[in-house]
Amino acid sequence: MKKHNKYSSEQLAWLIRRHGIEMTHLSGGSHLGAILSVADIMGVLYAEVLKFDPEVTDWDARDRFILSKGHAGASVYAALAESGFFPVEELKTHYQNGSRLSGHVSHHLPGVDLSTGSLGHGLSVGTGMAYALKKDGKDARVFVVLGDGECNEGSVWEAALFANHFRLNNLIAIIDHNHMQSLDFNENTLEIEDFGAKWRAFGWNVIEVNGNNHAELKVALESITENDTLNKPTVIIANTIKGYGVGFMQNDILWHYRFPHDGWEYDMAVSELHANKPEGVIDPYTPAGIENPQIASESDDIFNDHTFSKTWHPSYPEQMRRVEATPGSCEREHPIQSNK
Ligand SMILES: Cc1ncc(C[n+]2csc(CCOP(=O)(O)OP(=O)(O)O)c2C)c(N)n1
Ligand SMILES: [Mg+2]
Predict the structure, then answer these.
(1) What single DSSP character describes residue 46?
(2) For residue range 141-154, what is the model confidence (pLDDT) as tens digits?
(3) Are 81 and 160 in contact (CB under 8 A)?
(4) Ramachandran class of 120: left when φ > 0, alpha when ψ lies in -120 to 50, beta otherwise
(5) Could you tell me how far CA 90 lies from the centroid of its own chain?
């Protein structure tokens, strides 16, 4: 694959994770689990796939990119800053009053084509862009990254129909399939499986990969580039883990909204990242890691199940009462454990 960045995809994904932790920590912002989940997809796209020029942001032939799951805005901000679109230092203003780096993706930043955050719109706009580019004979592609919970939105499927009808082979959707949304597993919220079969039925070329594995993502993306005869839009179902990269955040829905607080949460997250830092990357915040990091104690809220369908941790008594008031809601089995 061609290189479009001074960083490798692994280095860039690491930096996206590190920035995501710092940005949510400094701002008290949310959606860190969603940022960590999509970091590898963003790293591969911005290091090796997307055609762009940070000096000429409205370059006609640039690939278009839409982060439709706009709540993971920190991931695209970090990717853009590390790709030269604006100073890395500005990332610290995320969520602050007056900052261009709003919590959800803002088109006021160079390199962003569409503001997102209200789920379900990115694929429709991307489809329109791909249609227009094709009509104008432009050699550019459109990449849209969606959440899997986002695919509960009907508008996603309307766009899927349109893209198939016009055989938009310049459109690539990548779904961050982490099996979770805000409060629970997708399967307990609104079932979407068999996900691949659904897209196939809508006429799309479907590729399923491990979305935290760079090699698999690259093979999938390369296969689309090489297959010029493909007369269909492509969807890559990227199976990911929400919170990937920080053990105690992985598959714990708490980290959809929670930010890493001072103390063991921040210290353990940063220390784990440091233990897995690729060669040649400098941590812009804690270059030498954290000396004597605080570690969670037994009484700390770590490795507990915070999903709505199982139970809420006792530290959330109000929500717990709500769950108990809903008959049967506590007894439901985890769909993945029960292999539904
Ligand atoms: C139209 C709309 N409804 C609700 C929300 C609130 N919301 C923010 S993130 C989220 C969950 C999204 O889950 P998913 O698409 O799976 O993304 P993930 O965080 O798992 O990557 C929801 C419902 C929203 N942003 N937009
Ligand atoms: Mg999800």
Answers:
(1) I
(2) 999 999 999 999 99
(3) no
(4) left
(5) 21
Q: Whose atoms come closest to the Cα of 120: which ligand? A: 1
Q: How are beta strands 64-67 and 171-177 bridged, if at all?
A: unpaired
Which burial class, exposed, middle or buried, applies to 135 when counting CB atoms under 10 A from its CB (0-12, 13-18, 19+)?
A: exposed
Q: How remote is the C-alpha of 323 from its chain's centroid?
A: 28
- List all residues 6 or more positions away from 45 whose beta carbon is below 8 Å from its beta carbon: 65, 79, 143, 145, 174
Give per-residue burial for 235-260: e unless 16+ CB within 10 Å, then b.
Answer: bbbbbbbbbbbbebbbbbbbbbbbbb
Within 8 A by CB and 6+ apart from 267, the residues are 290, 293, 294, 295
- List domains and CATH numbers for the chain: 9-239 (3.40.50.970), 308-340 (no CATH)
Atom of ligand 1 lying closest to residue 118 CA: 26
> What are the tokens at 86?
């604006």
**What is the DSSP track for 172-231?**
EEEEEE-SB-SSSBHHHHS---SHHHHHHHTT-EEEEEETT-HHHHHHHHHHHHH-TT--
Q: Tell me the pairing of strands 142-147 and 64-67.
A: parallel
User: Given ligand 1 and candidates 40, 118, 181, 191, which is best to mutate, with the most ligand atoms within 8 Å of its CB?
Assistant: 181
Ligand 1: lining residues by beta carbon, under 6 Å: 34, 37, 69, 71, 117-120, 147-150, 176, 178, 180-182, 242, 256
Q: Which residue has the tokens 């812009």?
A: 284
Q: What is the pLDDT of residues 280-333, one digit of tens each?
A: 999 999 999 999 999 999 999 998 888 887 654 444 444 444 444 444 433 333
| SS3 of residue 143 by DSSP | strand
292: region left, alpha or beta (phi > 0 left; psi from -120 to 50 alpha) = left
